[in-house]
Design goal:
Number of strands: 15
Structural class: alpha/beta
Helix content: 25-40%
Order of helices and strands: HEHEHEHEEHEHEHEHEEHEEHEEHE
Strand content: 15-25%
Distance between the termini: 19 Å
Radius of gyration: 20 Å
């Protein structure tokens, strides 16, 4: 999620959707537990981006027991501080280091050059090295599915979207959510407020309130706190949770949660280091790989809507449903994709437009 704007717009890469490990490396002889470190860009909170990665760390520890010793450093800003922390963790003897923030990519690469015997996992990065792998998830698949739920639940036909930065990943989410809504409710429109920030709970709340005042009765977001969910609960509106199930703060507002699941991937990569099969590579997994999940349906969601969303989830997993299938027009009336075609991974990773139905422009 967390991305340096200029760097994110400058380049993207293609990912292979598999967790397979190479078979050509010699096992690592370890007398002590494998030391694994995680670097978090915000404090650990009860829900959100960092929370999901912390659950991933806990899953590694639970699965591998005394074979590993995991630790983390939280609230590490992107940039010079990140490089200092990552370097310190390598010097402390950690042999596998996960850095789940796009702004950690360059610091990770710099440290990796000086520690060739340490394995690094750059989450949401796109540059690899012999000892640096990258991984990301197809968040847009969950966005499309949540749009179906929102399209069925709205009464005003207006949804709101609180967005961080106008990078491809966020544009994918806005567009997929809108396409999902309009697949079941062609009258639906989505109003977007850009924050140019990932984590600013007061402004996230204010943006949600503004969207509610503009007629939105359901809201989604791509920011780092649960402030939007809390605002929806306060106003008696509906909301789609992101990263985590957020019913704890929005028991009446939440219609569904798009959750990120990192435990299986992190555990597989740790096992690969333990048995000597770790190899640098690219992973871009989604619903099919279990990295994105629809869960936490709210009590207000009819059974028929739940069933519809879960059925479409299976269609995405099987490849029957592609969220970015034509015809697609942008919100300025230009044809982006003809009927019968689907956007390639490269086109999705470099997305730079808003689809028809989104009100507003891409922030500068």
């Amino acid at each position: 999620m967390y991305k340096n704007l200029a760097a994110a717009l400058a380049a993207a890469c293609l990912f292979s959707p598999a967790f397979s490990q190479a078979k050509d490396a010699a096992p690592v002889a370890l007398k002590e537990p494998l030391k694994i470190a995680f670097v978090y860009v915000t404090p650990i909170t009860p829900a959100g981006w960092v929370h999901q990665h912390e659950l991933g760390r806990q899953a590694v520890q639970a699965a591998l027991g005394d074979k590993v010793k995991t630790t983390y450093v939280e609230n590490v800003p992107e940039g010079a501080d990140a490089e200092r922390v990552i370097r310190d963790l390598a010097q402390q003897g950690n042999k596998l280091i996960f850095t789940p923030s796009f702004g950690y990519m360059e610091p990770t690469l710099r440290v990796a050059k000086d520690f060739p015997d340490v394995k690094f996992e750059s989450i949401t990065g796109y540059k690899t090295a012999p000892n640096v792998a990258v991984a990301n998830a197809r968040y847009y698949e969950g966005r499309y599915l949540s749009g179906i739920a929102a399209g069925r639940m709205t009464k005003t036909n207006v949804a709101g979207y609180v967005a961080g930065f106008p990078i491809p990943e966020v544009l994918q989410g806005i567009n997929a959510f809108t396409l999902g809504m309009r697949s079941v409710n062609p009258k639906a429109v989505v109003k977007v407020i850009w924050l140019n920030s990932w984590f600013d709970p007061p402004r996230e709340r204010d943006a949600a309130m503004t969207l509610f005042n503009q007629g939105a009765d359901v809201i989604a977001f791509h920011t780092g706190s649960n402030a939007v969910m809390a605002a929806a609960q306060e106003r008696g509106k509906l909301a789609v949770a992101y990263h985590s199930d957020m019913r704890a703060v929005a028991p009446d507002a939440q219609i569904v949660a798009v959750t990120h699941q990192w435990g299986a991937y992190y555990t597989a990569r740790a096992r690969a280091v333990l048995n000597g099969t770790w190899k640098s590579g690219n992973v871009w997994g989604g619903v099919k790989e279990g990295m994105i999940r629809m869960e936490g349906f709210g009590a207000k969601v009819p059974k028929a809507v739940r069933s519809e969303v879960l059925a479409r989830e299976k269609d995405i997993a099987s490849g029957k449903l592609k969220p970015f299938a034509g015809p697609i027009e942008d919100n300025e009336g230009h044809l982006v994709l003809a009927r019968g075609q689907a956007l390639s991974d490269e086109q999705i990773l470099n997305m730079n437009f808003l689809v028809s139905g989104v009100q507003g422009k891409i922030a500068k």
